[in-house]
């Protein structure tokens, strides 16, 4: 069976990713003054204990946490406006989990997430998930998001971030990305041969990039550079699933 390394956000994530993302978010979230603190997150004085299944789980956990940070004000407003928060059954210590799971839920257009059979369920994630996915909560949350978009005249959630950040993200998303060759498992020659069978062509530099092209870094010969448009497609190759190529 074909293996994939990526966890597509449109399907949701395994329970452990939500737990790790919540712990990361708890430590980086924006602290607000007491007169503005309408959403309470509990104590975050202790360093979180993170347990990642693999490098990909680490990456998506941090991505989800920082996405929740970027939209923290909006997510909190949605929770409050919908009446979904506060909830007596959800203690302050689980508010970060509630926020990161809401961040993912709105990204999936409030559709239920995929079930990952290979991983043991986490009780807290299951509890928050069942609460958010209830029909009445989903309806209230979607309505609250729609009201926020009307209130701020925003076409999409991306328009809730400052223009400077939005432009910066656009520039970053267009940049080429690098991967390391794990020379303990595969040689440069074998990687090139594998990529050629996938229809990719080696070029001399990034200035020669077309869509299905790549280049060997001029200074580090165990580093390959690819166009940004290939990122999602490449991450689904067995080369990544087998850790023969590692995303920089």
TrEMBL record:
The keyword Methyltransferase applies. GO terms for biological process: methylation. Residues 178-248 form the NOL1/NOP2/NSUN 5/7 ferredoxin-like domain. Gene3D superfamilies: Sun protein, domain 3. InterPro entries: NSUN5_7_fdxn-like, NSUN7. GO terms for molecular function: methyltransferase activity. It comes from the Eukaryota. Keywords: Methyltransferase, Transferase. This is NSUN7 methyltransferase. The gene is Nsun7.
């Amino acid at each position: 069976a074909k293996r994939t390394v990526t966890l597509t956000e449109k399907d949701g994530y395994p329970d452990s990713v939500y737990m790790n993302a919540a712990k990361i978010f708890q430590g980086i979230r924006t602290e607000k003054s007491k007169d503005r603190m309408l959403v309470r997150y509990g104590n975050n004085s202790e360093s979180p204990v993170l347990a990642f299944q693999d490098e990909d789980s680490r990456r998506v956990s941090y991505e989800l946490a920082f996405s929740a940070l970027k939209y923290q004000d909006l997510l909190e407003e949605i929770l409050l406006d919908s009446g979904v928060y506060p909830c007596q059954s959800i203690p302050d210590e689980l508010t970060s989990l509630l926020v990161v799971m809401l961040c993912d839920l709105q990204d999936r257009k409030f559709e239920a997430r995929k079930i990952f059979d290979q991983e043991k369920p986490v009780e807290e994630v299951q509890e928050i998930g069942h609460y958010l996915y209830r029909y009445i909560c989903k309806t209230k949350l979607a309505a609250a998001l729609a009201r926020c978009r009307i209130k701020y005249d925003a076409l999409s959630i991306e328009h809730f971030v400052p223009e400077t950040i939005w432009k910066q993200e656009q520039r970053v998303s267009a940049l080429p990305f690098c991967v390391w060759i794990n020379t303990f498992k595969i040689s440069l020659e074998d990687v090139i041969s594998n990529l050629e069978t996938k229809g990719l062509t080696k070029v001399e530099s990034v200035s020669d990039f077309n869509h299905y092209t790549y280049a060997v870094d001029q200074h580090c010969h165990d580093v390959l550079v690819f166009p940004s448009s290939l990122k999602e497609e490449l991450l689904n190759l067995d080369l990544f699933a087998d850790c023969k190529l590692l995303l920089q």
